[in-house]
């Protein structure tokens, strides 16, 4: 019955997220979820919101959340946009700010949702190869463009671009929007939000899915010049007036406010990551320097797909990408110490180490 499909649908190549297996008991290190639960203050806030008020629509503008994000980052609420996960925020960004005559630029190895949005909205793009060390080189982006987007740290490499390099990119690119997708910045980077007041073409995207352990609540936000935010609001209000429900708004506000829990859990993840990196290198893996809650590693003598299959037999799932240049890498989410130790024991058996 595909003749019912529009030509747009025929032309789509949808994004495929990492699997969410239904079987219990797996050690799930494949989608960069946080191994620690959300803040207890978030859970209390969610429970407090469950009640009669759910019959009413939520605040269409999510003002309380914009205020919480603005307070956290020392910006003003008109510089903040909120959405149903940063994937939705990104979707609006592509349509509102990145669809132009000149091609959009992004790295050849990056978040694989970017080309999918380009396909959905008919956006012309050019990929810029990472260096041989799988790093972003900002001078490679000095060419006519209709916008630039990349994650920092990059995904799935985990490599961080220092803020000074981002500033150099902004200085050389005053006439189109530069989007920095900071899904993992809390695990070792410095946010480019510090630069938004000086660079009106800069838009920074963040999510509560990773460092605030709320992937299931679906909340993301963007910070930038009020005119950029206005463009996003125009698209959002032409699409869905209420992208965030009452629970999402209330829980996200509590998450932004509970700094001690956030600080404690992200520090634990960073400590576990360093231990995991040491252990993987001990097994002979080449591990890229990571500023994220995952590591990207390849073994010089073992096929990545076979390693992933071997781990799966031991009930541990990691992510593998069938993509040129990285097909021998595994992306491994940093779990708890116990989960990472179980991973290392499994690898020791598989590798006979
Ligand atoms: C996880 C991730 C997102 C999506 O986050 P959600 O807020 O859960 O939609 C966006 N960008 C990158 C690079 C990510 O890794």
Characteristic key phrases:
seven-stranded mixed sheet; 353 residues; three-stranded antiparallel sheet; binds pyridoxal-5'-phosphate; Aspartate Aminotransferase, domain 1; Aspartate Aminotransferase, domain 2
Description:
- The protein is an alpha/beta fold.
- It is 36% helix and 14% strand.
- The strands form 3 sheets. A 7-stranded mixed beta sheet has the order 2-8-7-6-5-3-4, sandwiched between helices. A 3-stranded antiparallel beta sheet has the order 9-10-12. The protein has a two-stranded parallel ribbon with strand order 1-11.
- A hairpin with a 6-residue loop joins strand 9 and strand 10 (294-298).
- Helix 2 packs antiparallel against helix 8 (246-257), helix 4 packs across helix 5 and helix 4 (85-97) packs across helix 7 (226-236).
- The mean pLDDT is 97.
- Pyridoxal-5'-phosphate binds at residues 85-87, 111, 151, 155, 181, 183, 207, 209, 215, 220.
Give a concise summary.
It contains 11 helices and 12 strands.
Lay out the secondary structure.
Elements: H1 7-10, E1 27-29, H2 40-49, H3 63-73, E2 80-83, H4 85-97, E3 104-107, H5 113-121, E4 125-128, E5 147-151, H6 163-171, E6 178-181, E7 202-207, E8 220-224, H7 226-236, H8 246-257, H9 259-282, E9 286-287, E10 294-298, H10 304-313, E11 316-318, E12 329-333, H11 337-351
Parallel strand pairs: 1-11, 3-4, 3-5, 5-6, 6-7
Antiparallel strand pairs: 2-8, 7-8, 9-10, 10-12
The structure holds pyridoxal-5'-phosphate (PLP).
Pyridoxal-5'-phosphate is lined by residues 85-87, 111, 151, 155, 181, 183, 207, 209, 215, 220.
